[in-house]
Amino acid sequence: MNRLSEFLSQNVGVELWVATLVVIALITIAVNQAAQVVLRKAAKVAANTTAVWDDALVRSASRPVLAALWVIGAGYMARVLQRQVDVAFLAEVLALRDVALVICVAWFLIQLAGRVGRNVIDRRVSRGEDVDHTTVDALVKLARLLTFIVTVLVVAQTLGFQISGLLALGGVGGIAVGFAAKDLLANFFGGLTIYLDRPFTVGDWIRSPDKSLEGTVEYISWRHTRIRAFNKNPIYVPNSVFTTIVVENPSRMSHRRIKETIGLRYDDFAVVETIVDEVRQMLQDHESIDTSQTLIVNFNQFGASSLDLMIYTFTKTTVWTTFHHVKQDVLLKIGQIIERQGAQIAFPTQTLLVQQDLVPQDPPEDAPAQAKPAPQSAG
Predict the structure, then answer these.
(1) DSSP alpha helices (H): ranges in the chain?
(2) CATH 3.40.640.10 applies to domain 253-340
(3) Which of 56, 204, 272, 282 is the Cys-Cys partner for 200 at CB 3.0 to 4.6 Å?
(4) pLDDT tens for each residue of 232-267
(5) How far from chain centre, in Å, is Cα 334?
(6) What phi and psi values does residue 202 have, to the nearest 5 degrees?
């Protein structure tokens, strides 16, 4: 090294440490240029694949990797300068280098989470599949939040802060904040439960038998869920409520049910069996009825004023308006079958039977008149 230093100083007129700085700078530039070429080629290859991770990895790593290369090069240059110049600031530069590298890693992870989420949504949309935007958005936000927290802790440790004391303080403070904001935390964990269990998503129609709650989910946040009622009024429900109530999600039903009781007159008892058979056959032949599900058409009971037939079946459609068209068609055809058999649908009636021997009758004309009692004289 001494000979090289003497050679450079005598022939080139440059100190060895200066030449070292120049070489490090040139190597850093060369490596940076080579990395750009490699990343561009990798991006082209990843764009032709169907996976969601490779494209996200390459695109998310491009800028952080280039920045990290410059940081590493600057760190080596600072180390060379530290050996030649006794400046306290240069010792801090190495710590700043570590902080910058940690920030580059966090930058990469934050971008990766966002790009993976977007890729998942785009790929499912392109294949025509349903996309749960709420869950994807929640997972992306959670990954970014965890990355930010870990980055802050690592940076604090790198800069010389005592993380153990900070964690202990955070634990005590967390207990105090937990008691003070228990409702807020309950809503937060209720929202986390909704994101993970997915009992419903944005756009679903939900209702609860435990509360007067029914409508379409419009928005799910970490604190509350906004539901648009059928009268178009917004309902803001704290997320903690959904951990204690039963939630019904009709949007995920597989079929809609037709359940009706139709009464016939007692005078039509002779054609009840024929009507039942024809109605059952009509439902089995109906194009909108799913015959793979339960289908029941039976004479059910002797009602107070009718012979009750039970109709129980399921439609193929789950669309509300289409279901009512199918139900109307089924009921009209049932009415036509009843009419064709000469029967009638019963309505509430009451028959009063009066016994003849209890009705007072007029006395016959030849019956003797009853004698009137003689008046009594005053004593």
Answers:
(1) 2-7, 16-47, 53-84, 88-126, 133-158, 163-180, 182-197, 272-285, 320-340
(2) no
(3) 204
(4) 999 999 988 988 889 999 988 999 999 999 999 999
(5) 40
(6) -60, 130
Those residues whose C-beta lies under 8 Å from the C-beta of residue 304, and which sit 6 or more positions away, are: 348
315 close to 259: Cβ distance less than 8 angstroms:
no
Q: Say which residues have a Cβ less than 8 Å from residue 114's Cβ, sequence separation at least 6.
A: 140, 144
CA 375 – CA 379 distance, rounded (Å): 12
Q: What strands, in cross-sheet order, belong to the sheet with 256-264?
A: 256-264, 307-315, 296-302
CATH topology of domain 183-251: SH3 type barrels. (2.30.30)
- Compute the distance between CA of residue 202 and CA of residue 216 in angstroms, rounded to an integer: 8
Which sign does the torsion angle of CA 138, 144, 149, 154 carry? Answer: positive
Cα(235)–Cα(218) distance, integer angstroms: 10
Could you identify the residue written with the tokens 């004289």?
377
| Angle CA 334–335–337, to nearest 5 | 65
pTM confidence score = 0.52
Q: Provide the residue type at 125 as one letter.
A: V
List the domain boundaries for the chain: 2-127+143-158, 183-251, 253-340
